[in-house]
């Protein structure tokens, strides 16, 4: 089809037939205005105008459901590709707002790019025709008005959604897989028992040691319906398209495992858009979430959910005997900083497991010496440390909590102040860059700046703005993590108390409590007592810290 289309266009060009592009656009916001802006109505106006004014060889380009501030619209980009190929002579739109609502970008296309390509541009209702420059003096101001309209509309919509979200109502139109809308109350979610069993199965499989990719593969092999296929087979609306709807993907499994709403709450404002011009979704820190507990029946209890979240952050490893390494990603060499590697030895039918420095095993003693330690010994050490810490917390929980908060408050406060200051500087610079791009464009219109310099400036400022936006996102994440460190003290205390009398060390305990375990060298290599540092996810050990010495294996 594409080859045939291209051949036709080439023939047109060879025969001297230039395309008249008739472009139509409708956004979801425009739908609120009624039928006047509908794609069908726009096409009727454009066809009639082309017929009356003798434009032949017309071709429609239409984008339905795309904002005027977004210029990455499929058919708009297809039209620009044809412009670059020299296939188009004239572009006709109903009005300037159909072309776009970003006055800098609209101005760039209509004042610079299209004239350079010798393309005539017509906006029917606005009386704009680049073949008659005398009538186009007001065009830049009309573009500014269109952008203001887009900004104002976006602000009103955000205000409505903000009010709805703060009231605890679901902002998502479609419930997550496992829930369904109450037929008597569309704002309420009910458990879809059949789908909920699949959700529970996924959580159970992950806790049992399956990877997300492994879970996806097993679900597909078992013929279990994907969320997309499940919805299609029952006539339920579903957001996501899928190339292979019958195959589970790792992404689908990950989405289910990370969805906090399965605990029975509503979580609003998890993402935001940078501006009305930039539609890219940015993940917000938890401090910006609006969480409403008990808005629907829970499919997964909170304890299970939180354990899974901690496990998701660490890779798992298995031995050749299919034994799960409960310390996977948590055990490190004190001397080279490399990860400790788990090994297994079969001695007369009895399998023993041990750990050693991975760099020593892979690169030899010239890189790092042996840090050999038996798995049962390191497990016993860590388990004893967890029990001891739990005992000390139980004895004086209030004092320990206060000491921890006091110990970390000053450090956290400095980190937060520094991050906020840096964040303010970068945000101010992004605003300045937007202003500089605007000034460059205005200088070009006034004839104060050559076209090539204007384009160069806009590109330079745009590149810097994109880089700063990425840095701002990173700073926001860092700020969130710093704040959450203080807020997580109570959660850590609650979790560790559960293991006061734990009979054995489990993978869940390690992922829930530990940040890392650092293993010092064997005494026979160092001539010193072995030191093992156990570092917890929340550094409450700053109050209770101690080191285990004199370990001989």
What does this protein structure show overall?
- This protein has 553 residues and is α/β, with parallel strands linked by helices.
- Among the domains are: 2-155, Resolvase, N-terminal catalytic domain (Rossmann fold, 3-Layer(aba) Sandwich), CATH 3.40.50.1390; 168-312, Putative Large Serine Recombinase, Chain B, Domain 2 (Hect, E3 ligase catalytic domain fold, Alpha-Beta Complex), CATH 3.90.1750.20; 408-482.
- It has 19 helices and 17 strands.
- The protein has a five-stranded mixed β-sheet, with helices on both faces.
- Strand 6 and strand 7 (185-191) form a beta hairpin.
- Helix 5 (103-116) packs antiparallel against helix 6 (139-166), helix 5 packs parallel to helix 14 and helix 14 runs antiparallel to helix 15 (451-487).
- It is elongated, with a radius of gyration of 31 Å.
- The termini are far apart.
- The model is unreliable at 1-17, 274-279, 316-322 and 545-553 (pLDDT under 50).
Please, what is the average pLDDT?
Answer: 75
The shape, in one word, is elongated
* Strand numbers in spatial order across the main sheet: 2-1-3-4-5
CATH architectural type of the domain at 2-155: 3-Layer(aba) Sandwich
Number of helices: 19
Radius of gyration, in Å, reads 31 Å
Q: What's the CATH H-level superfamily name of the domain at 2-155? A: Resolvase, N-terminal catalytic domain
DSSP summary, beta strand count: 17
Kindly report how far apart the N and C termini lie: 72 Å
List low-pLDDT spans: 1-17, 274-279, 316-322, 545-553
The helix-and-strand class reads: alpha/beta
CATH class of the domain at 2-155: Alpha Beta
CATH fold description of the domain at 2-155: Rossmann fold
* β-strand amount: 5-15%
Share in helix: 40-55%
Largest sheet: 5 strands, mixed
